[in-house]
Structures are given as structure tokens and as C-alpha cells.
Amino acid sequence: MFIGTRSRRTNIITAYILVVVILFCGRQLAMRALAPAGEAVADEFIFISDTDSLDASRRSNSVYRIQLDGRGLFTQPSMKRIVGSIKHGDGYLRISDIDCEPASQQMVIASHRHDLNGFHHSLLDGTGLHLDKPDSGARLRATRQIAIAPDGERIMVSRQFEGFSEPRFGLVGGDLMSRQYHIVKTPTATLSYRSPVWAPGGKRIAYIIERQEGDTTKMYQLAIASSSGADESIAYESSLTISDLDWSPTGERLALVVDRQVYRIDRGASEMIKLTDHLGGATSPRWSPDGAQVSYVTPSTFAGQNQLFVMNADGSGKRRVANIRGELVNGCWV
Fold first, then answer.
1. What pLDDT is recorded for position 258?
2. How many Cβ atoms from other residues are within 10 Å of residue 281's Cβ?
3. d(CA 318, CA 334)
4. Which pLDDT score is estimated for 28?
5. pTM value?
6. Collapsing DSSP states into helix, strand and coil, what is residue 30?
7. Which of the 8 DSSP states describes residue 77?
């Protein structure tokens, strides 16, 4: 009698647990179904680092991906190495830049090597990694910066041109399907073109013109043109170093680094807005997918470490979300 009672009680408890589990799972599925599209994005970053001791010993670096928790902080278990040291000849490549296109889930990786005519191409999770080479047209040797178009089918790179006494960089555009490449901006003895970025619509590009004036003086210009390089206009000019461009998702704003601090320039504005003032400087600004925030990198007070920060688009609300031992170059916010 006691055994039968205990058995019935066990069955009732088991049934109760199953009902609770089913209700919980159903609630979770319903919440996901009712959640706004894209709600789960804007909480992961893809970046370049040599934080792994294996990379340091190989004199290379890798591509990592991290996720923020519910408090907007980096969690160590979420850090994933998605593209390890890339083998090249008897050694390993050192990545100079990466860019991502979340809509098509594609990532392109530049390596500043004169003997590498191409770039590496993979999905955002690092799978499908392969070397993409031009079938015809301009070569892609010594590629410093790379940008993938919103359609996921075109790229723009800043690569070094030969024949100059000092390093000079120009822009080369290409089609990922046909693998045909053409020169968009040719450098001269006094001009280099760097840091290309695509506007959200894919019809325009922004880039930096570095102009040599005399033996020591340089001028920097923020230029905007069509994707073919035509109809070029100068949005800003300075004797201070300009670098690291990123176009906001709406196309109304550009984030850039001027004299090692992050600024913002709005369409039609005559002045820029300074967003950071870190003693160690700030680099690699990247807009969040909704355009409300900007992530960037600043050196840590501890030697050999760098920090990933996030701030609002007006420069307020700065917070550190990650501290990385070794190199840190912000790549994409996905």
C-alpha cells in the first residue's frame, strides 16, 4: 500500500515538473516570436588581437569575437577565436584590418604583405576562410585597409603602390563575384588615399587623403565621393592626423579619429563634435547597428593592455566593456 502511494506521488510530481517545463519553454518561444526583429543584435564585437601567446610566438594575430552580457559588460567565457593565425609560406600573416557585413554574414581580412596578392574572406563565424585573389585588373599587394560594401558583393581596399620613394597608398575597388579589380584613386608623389568606408546605400565612399607638403608638413582631408571615385568633395581638412573612419547606419554621420581622439561630423555641418578625451588617445570608432552608440579602443593604464569602450553618439555614457591583454583593433559591431 505504501509503495503504491509513493509511486502515485512520484508520478504526480513528475507530471507537475513536465507541465512547468512545457509552460516555461512555451513562454520563452512566445517571447522570442513577439520580440522585435533584430532585438538580439548590437551585443557582439569582432576585433583583431594578439592576446593569445601562440600568436605572439608566431609574430601574428587573430580575429576574435566577444559577447556582452545583460549588463553590457564583456564576459571572458564568451570570447571566441574565430580566425586563428593565418598560415603563409613558412610563417604567419599579421592582419592589418577587417570589415564585416552582417546582412550577408561576410567578413574580409586584409594583411599588409607585398607578396600576398589578395585578401582573406570568410563568414562571420570564421568558417569558409579562403584567400581571394583578383582574376584580372589591379593587384592587391600590401593591402592596409579593407571595406566590404553593404550588398556584400563589392570591396574597396587601400593598398600600397610601387614606384615611389616613400610609401604611397591608393584605392582599388573590386567585385567579389567576377574577381575583377580596378583602380579608383591613384596615388602621386604627394598624395595617399587611406581608410575607405562605404555609405549605407553602397553608392558613396568616404576616405582620407594624406597630402605631403614639403619635407615635413602633411595635410589631411576627409573626402566623400561616388563608389567610382568621381564627384569628390572635401568635408573636412586639418594639419592634424586623421584616421579610422566609420559611417553611421543612417549615413547622416561619420565617426573619425583626429589627433588620436574620436570625433563626429554630421552631414551638412561645418564643425566636428569631439567625443573622447582620453590621455592615451582613442582609435577604431565603430557605430552600433542602430546608430545610437559608438565603440572604440583606448590604451589601459596597465602596460601591454588595451580597453574596448562604448559611448552614446553624443559622447556621453562612456563605459569600459572589455580589457584585452595585447593588441586590440576594433573591427565590427554586429
1. 96
2. 16
3. 19
4. 34
5. 0.84
6. helix
7. G
